[in-house]
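2024-03-11 09:14:02 DEBUG pipeline.ingest accepted 1 chain
2024-03-11 09:14:02 DEBUG pipeline.ingest length=188
2024-03-11 09:14:03 DEBUG pipeline.predict start
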Amino acid sequence: MVAFCAEIEPALGLKCREVYIPPEGVREGSVEAARMRDQLIDADLVITTAFHSAFVHQLTEGMPAPLVAVSAHPDLGRAIHKRIQDGVLTVVCVDSRFADRIRLVYTGDHADRVRTVLVNDVWAVNRLDPSEPVLLTRAARRKLEDMELPIIVPHSPTLSFESVRELSEVIIRLNLERTDQTAISPVA
């Protein structure tokens, strides 16, 4: 969420509001699902990933806001796959559930090759080998500003080209629809 929002806001001029969904999802019809729906009700556009698109589609059903499922830049996936094939990928993150998603999406039979280091674990962070590349999330980087770590993937672009194009088209369409709705009609 942090990486996508950090890229979407300045590049596309949107104000992002993050709505967190646990990796295990939320039971449809639950209080938590209703709370999430309430957070999305006023959105002009809902953006999610393929990881949660089915659940978010259920949440937003009947809402006027379009739903776009974005994908990560392919270089990100290639770098993660290569690092896992070559050995161990260390994920430095704020929330261990991010590393769990990396395991689920990218590792296949090699989930044991993803090592998680939480930024709040000072001992583990200080034991990182400065010559070994890591996957450092934007949220973790904000907390570790002083530490220089080699990073296996670029921070930008995070979004795939196709996702940026799709978002741009949706934004243009929404703006055109608003312009049509607010046009002043002559009164006779």
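2024-03-11 09:14:41 DEBUG pipeline.report Helices lie at 2-12, 31-40, 53-60, 74-86, 96-107, 122-126, 138-143, 161-182.
2024-03-11 09:14:41 DEBUG pipeline.predict end
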